[in-house]
Every structure is written in structure tokens, then in C-alpha cells.
């Protein structure tokens, strides 16, 4: 049995339990023990709980109140095993106080062990680096031989003269000195432009032959008189279809155009003939435009009705063709509302409802909180309808101000 502690912090008492066959008994819990600690005067008694340390070793702790009240001294204590009942220990023990500064903590001991191991490993590494006497002697011999050879090499050196340097430069291959941006690259580019002797000789032969042929061609030329030139021109024009008969027509082309009469309907276009009165509303009907020239529009209105009994977002939609309000021929009108910032639907595509008694006007009302617009945010209303046998879509930006 052993115990230690400090005044105010308590004592820790450890003990072991051995089976009849001499092996440690493990796996016991606090309920398997009865522990009593008392002083000789029998003025107090306490029963601390037992816990297993491991390997058949157990311990109990006397709390700080015990050491504060009673301090160091002699106390009686007993430990009984309740299952089966066995009186394990009954003894008197003197608890003694130690300065806590003298006790090394488990953490400190572990840290010191790590440090000791690291220092030991470093020492072994340092020892391994120490050169043996034989190796040092061999290195000294090698150093001496290398020093002697170095001195001999220095003595055999000759300072190169200017001629030797020049020979070295001119005899050096260009391939190793033509890096980008270097003087060698520029010099190599110039040298590469120089024509070889064989190429120059071949070009000279070609030039001579071409010169001789040119002189022959010039000698064979004959001066043409005016009649010969005219005849050659006539032949060329005839080949192109310009005959004498057509020449007369070409000469009179300007006169024929200038005397051509202007169509009467064009003569009716005079300044000021088109007035505002003649461009009245619906002067041009939709049927007078080609299908590719038709223009279709949709207009969306939205209202934030927070003061209604049930707060509601109200949407209104009207459709137009060539700027005119459409009251018929609008198929499957629908609306979809999505958020600007991420394109996620606020309201998925849903059918619009016709306004009773007013053809061409449609509406939709949203009362669900998650599908209502948030103050200060921007949205796109995308309206779709089938008009003139084609499905048409119009986006329009909507939103509402921040609530003051």
C-alpha cells in the first residue's frame, strides 16, 4: 500500500488484489469493495470509492476536505471484497505530506522522456559522423597528393597570348553561340544570307540565258502603224460581241434613257402629298404586312398588396400586335417569375386567368409567402402565349421598392 498527497488536494492510496493462484485479479469495480478510513480516536469515518488502475492494481482517493481537516498523521483503513466477502487489508498507515513542487507530473515526465530520447538519438548520430583514425589518415594522404598535383598543374599553366585567343574565337563552332538575343545569333543570321559559290555560278548562268533571250525578243519586235492597231482592236471587240451594228446602239444609249417616259404612278408622288390625316390609326391592317414584319408585345403589371386581409402579389398582363391591343386569338397564356440573382423560380410557370367581361386582359394572384416578392429585390416575369399559330415569349423586369 502507498499513499501521497498535499494539504487541500487529498491523498491517493493504491493497493493490489491477488487471486489464490497468485495471479492479479482484474476487472473489479467500485461496487465490489468496501473501504473505510478512520482515526485512532474514532472521531470520524469516511468511505471513498475504488477504481482500477490496471493489472490488478486499484486505488482510492481521500478528498481535499480530508487533508485540509486532518492533515498528516496515522489513520486506520480497511478494504473488503464484497463479492465474495473477503477481508483483504486491515492496517494502520501514516499519511505524509510532500511539497507538490517536488513531484513531477505525468505530462512533465513524458515530455522529459521524449527529450531524453531525442538527445540520445542525436548523440548517436553525432558519434556516427566522427571520422575514424584510419579514415582521417587516408584522407590526409589523399589531400596531400591532390595538393601536389594542383601545384604541378599551376606550374604548367601558360598565359594565352592575343593570337591564341583570336584563333580560339574564330575556330569555335557557331552552333553553341546563337542563343536568342545574342551577338552570335545576329552574326549567324548575316552569314547565312551569303550565297554559296555553286549557287552563285548557277544563278549567273541563268541570268545570262535570260538576258540573251530578252535581246532576241527585242530584236524580233516590229513597230505597228495605226491601221494595224485599229484592226487588232476590231478583232478583239468582235470576239467579245461588239459589232458595228451594236456600236450604233451603244452610242444612242444615253439619249434613249433620257427620253424614256416616267410611269404615271410615280408622277403622283409630289411634295406634301402625304399628310397626317392620311396616316390615321389602323390605316395599315395586319394583313397588309408580311408575316416576318409582324410585331407582338406583352405588358406585365405587378402590385404589392401587403395591407390586404391576406397579403397578395397581384399580376396583370395584356398582349399587343403591331402596337394594337389584342382581344382574341390568345392561346394558353402563362406567367413564370424568376429571381435575377440566380435564375431560380420564384413562381414556376402557371396559367393566367382571363379578366371576366374584358377579353384580352389576364391576371394572376399569389398569396403563398415563399412565392411572394421580397422588398428591394428584382425579378423577371416571363410571359408565354400562342398567337397566330406560334408560341411567343416576352421577358419583363419587375420588382418592388424597399418598405420604408
UniProtKB/TrEMBL annotation:
This is Uncharacterized protein. It comes from marine sediment metagenome. The lineage of its organism: unclassified sequences, metagenomes, ecological metagenomes.
